[in-house]
Structure formats: C-alpha cells, structure tokens
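User: If only I could read backbone structure tokens as easily as an amino acid sequence. Underneath my words sits a plain record pairing an amino acid chain with its backbone structure tokens. This is the protein in question:
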Amino acid sequence: MHRFVVHGITRRRKHPSPWVPCEYIFGHKDLKICKDWFQHLISCINNESGRPKNLMVFVHPLCGKGRGVSNWETVYPLFARAKIKTKVIVTERAGHAYDTLSSLSDIELKAFDGVVAVGGDGLFNEILNGILSSRHKVSYPPTPEGFGYVGSSDNCEEQTRNWVNFSKPTPDSGNAVFLGNPSKCDDQEPLLSTSHPTELEIPSNSTKEPCIGDQDNPVSFPNDWFRLGIIPSGSTDAIVLSTTGERDPVTSALLIILGRKVSLDIAQVVRWKTSPTAEVLPTVRYAASFAGYGFYGEVIRESEKYRWMGPARYDFSGTMVFLKHRSYGAKVAFLDTPYTHSLTASAQDDITGAQPLQSRWKKPRKIICRTNCFVCKEASTSGQNPEDVADNSRTICENQKWVWSEGHFLSVGAAVISCRNERAPDGLVADAHLSDGFLHLLLIRDCPLPLYLWHLTQFTKKGSDPLSFKFVEHHKTQAFTFISSHDESVWNLDGEMFQACEVSVQACRGLVNFFASGPEL
C-alpha cells in the first residue's frame, strides 16, 4: 500500500488553540494513482492566488519575556510544511525593522507577498511606518478653518513630508538570522543586540517576478496583494485580538498560511509642532490601533523610568499616573459628516465657523465587527476605486462641518479598532470596526477621582458601557485636530511615544491588508 499525507486544519473547542493542524492519510496499492492525486492536490494549492509564497518575518527577541523566539520556533514548521519561503530577521535594536523596510526598493519589496511581525503591537507599528513612510501618497488630514496650517491640498505631491526618524542603520543591520536567544523582557524593551547574525538569502523564485517595467510601477498603498500579519507575542496584542478574536500564535500562523485577508483602517497622524514655541515642521506617523494623549501618553512616559520591572511597570506606572489625577487644557475640533452621530449644538457659530459643542446625542444600537462584517463590506463597496480610497482626505473635505470641544481633559484618545485585550475584553470601543473609515474620538473631561476610577474599571467588565458617563465624549469621526497651549504630555501611538502639542489625525480606510478573517467572537 502506497500512502501520502495531506495536512489541513480543524477546529477543536477544547484545545488551547482554536485552530490546530491535522493530518489525513490516503493510500492505494497503485503507485501511479497516488502520484496523480498528489500532483493534482499540489496543483490545486498552487492555483490559490491568495496564499502567500514568500514572506519577510521580523522576530522580536525581547518581547513578552522571550515569547517571540519561542513562538516562532513553534510555528515555523507549519510554514515549512506549507512550502512558504521566509526571510527571517531577528531585530537587534529599536528601528531595525523600520530601517530595513524603508530602505527596500520597490523591486525588492515585490519579491514578498507580505511582512509578518513575531512580537507585539509596538513591532507591528514599526513595520507599518517602515512600509508606508515613502509609499503612501496622500495629502495631509483636513483641518478646521482658522487653524493656520494647510491640511488638505489637491497638489499633495508638492507638500514636503518629514517622516518619522528611527535610529540609523548600522553597517551590519542588513544581516538576517533565523533564530536568537530568548530574553526576559517584554515587547516594549529596546531591541538590544543579540548574537552575531548569520545571513539568509532572499527568496529568488517569487511569484511576482521583478522586471524593468516594475520601476515604472512603484508600490503604493492601498493595494490588493501585499499583506501584513502578526504572530502574537507581546504584552497586550490588541491588534490580533481585534482582528481574529484569539491571542494564539498557531491560529494566527494558520490564517497567514491560508492567505486569509481583511482590510484595516490606519490613522495618519500629522504633528505640526512639538511645542508651542517650536516652528511648524509637519511630521507623519501611522497608528493601527490607538492614538492617545494625557493619561495614555503619561503611562508610557512614566514606564520608561521603570524598565527594570519588566511588564509589571505598566501597572505600576498606570497607578502612579492615575493617582496624580492631572488634567490638560486643550481644544479639539472633529469633523462632523453625514455619516457620524448627529449632535445637538448651538445655532450660533464662533468666529472660525465651527459649531461649539453643547450637548450629547442619543447613541444608536451597537453593531459589533465580526467575520464577514456587513458594515465593513458596505464601506468598501461605497468607496469607489482604490485611487479614490487613497485620497481619503479629499473625499471627507466635501461639505465638511467642524465641531469644537474645549476644556480640561484627563485624556484624549482615538481608537482605530476596538483595541480588545485580556484586561478589556470589549476593548476601548466595543463597536469600532476594522474597515469602515472612521475613528472613535474619546474625550475624558476632568472629573472627581472616584468617578474616573469607576470609568476605568468598566473597561474590565465584558458587556459594560464605560463611555456612558457624563464626563465622557464619544465621537465617531473621520478626522480631528488637537491643539494644546503647552507641551505637558506626549502622545501614545500604538504604545510608542510621540511628542506633539498640535496634531491632525485622519482615518485612511482600508489602507493595508491584514492576515486575518475577522474577529470570531
């Protein structure tokens, strides 16, 4: 009897991994029949255009107490079994992934079907900015009249961009290694040097063969073929939990192997000034999950003093910042479009033509984003062609109306996705969607400390409504501008600090594709 094995996946409720690999053994006493079936199955798999053939993989050796390396060791055999070629790079320092991706030519990038981060949300943010820094051609976010800076322009290619600067690459930073030694730090630790790397070759037999004509067709975003993914190994893994519903390396690896794909909104953050006295120097950053100022920024900044504590420093820093109970004076203007929640405002406009916020709105029924979400599908089908999606700011500037909210805030945050994690099972905004083209702006006004504690504890309870308090403003918008007369706090972009006192933020709908099938809750 001649036999061959077909590797597949199955769902097991009682298994630690929701999706697990399985084997099916087939046999026949005629060897030719077995070979014919084997070749037929191989041909069917190769004809599935959505499956990746070549991937670039960044492994964070210090994330999650060394889980990055061990998780890659666990899932690598699955990629090898699926005949997926991987160029694996163990990051050696902060900015290693950014420098590698931003320095790749378009021909080199086209050799890969996607990039995978084996780490946390911080490493993914670095990869995201490295990919988009020179390949996302769009005008700056729109700004309210009287703000002083040009936000949206038809001649966006003439605007000077100052992209985020990570540390410069060292002469040997291009070397690639397969695996490194685990370290006892989490995903927010600096990427320190590991052992001397050994080089791996870039896969040469890519399905997208580069040619001379490729130089005339540069890689731009959004597109249909390039995808990003995460093998969760960080402290919170909010992006993976919000896109798959599971924080499991094996499940994420299998979704990548099968080529599952969802579109993700990305927040484009433009810093106009680092401090009130600084000159205007626009700098662009991107965030996949969250951008926050005040409480959220101070927790990240305070935690830098206690790196020796490991992941526990976030709990300690959060407690310290909470007890300080500090508020920050600021003005926030958000774009009110026909698709946002209706507001009841004063009929009298201020001198800028924007409407001052006076009262709250009646919240509609929550629609949770799930697999095959109809809200995201409606947004994608109504978005015309990819070129129209790329210039999102031009679309949202039509018939724009700005609403101002001014005062002292404990925090100002914008959730791109739900931001689910183990401590907040519903996330910051339970009904945030992956690809509907909106941000969820959260303004937490100054309030007594016990009320603020009550608000924060509601995030830990599944099914609660932490945004129902009177001192909480929740606005679903496509863009907003933040202005502060001081530089007392910093911004938190996907867990990375960003110094800015004046920023404009817009949602770029479906800017990147992510290896996932949507949250299965």
Notes: Residues 151-214, 341-361, 384-395 have pLDDT under 50 and may be disordered. Residues 265-514 form a domain with the Tumour Suppressor Smad4 fold (CATH 2.60.200.40). The first helix runs from residue 31 to 46. The two ends are 44 Å apart (CA to CA).
